[in-house]
Amino acid sequence: MAHLVRQTVDFAPTSAISPLLDATELAHREVTNCFGHVIIASECLEQLGIEHFVSYANQHAIVTLFDRGSDRAFLLDVATKELCCDMTEAIGGSDPLDQLAMGDLRAVNTLYSDELLKRLPPSTDREKFVGSRPWLSFDDTDIARFREYRPTDHVLQLLTLPSVPGRLLLVQQYNAARRADRGEVDVANEELLELAGIYLDVDPRNNLRELDRLCKKLLQAEKYDEAIKLAAMAAESLVPGDTSKNQLFLPDTLRSIAKRTRNKQLAQWALGEYERLPPSSLRTGKLSAARKLLRNL
Fold it and tell me: Are residues 17 and 63 in the same domain?
């Protein structure tokens, strides 16, 4: 299946001129990104009656399959034939099928990309292979060769959804990001607000970059209510147990708006959000700033 899609539609990374995704038109295009590849492959598998899932790791979309009888897991990275393989040993955490069966909107797991790389033929230049597929690692490719190998760079957050909602989510999230890049701030924000609890790009090492850029545009346009809604959407989408600075996105946004508008109620809200977070040096500094702001209002 992956070979058929790969031969039919070429792969190209997302760029500033990448078109919006339209599931009904993808089959007529000669080139698409990983999101488009996954949508096409998923629809083909659905027509064949093969149960499968849509997964996401480090801003990259893939198709996953889980065999209930053997407890094996399989990966279809359409653009890369070497990564259409058994991925059982590369997944950590609770069984994704069990998580989804319990009613979770998405399964949350760990993907150990080093385990995938072990399946490469010995003749493969691993550094070049990963360098052309940056989703496999959080290494900075420009400096990785000069520093000590860090295993944590190859431990990725893996989110998995049932096929149909997964495809719809990919389209909506991708198109929202492209519209934000084009300056269509209001439309992008409306689309993203519908993704509360399921927004995909929440791996702490990506720092909510796309949401942060959009939030700043909303603040510049003095669309404060919309910025707060976007930050709340991000907070609701963080995975359970996230203790990263992504937790600060909502209270930081609230504090920024409170400072701009001299709004004491927002400052109090921001303070409450900081107070409920686990202790850390960063939280301590934010708490101090929030308390100072509240006193000065």
Answer: yes
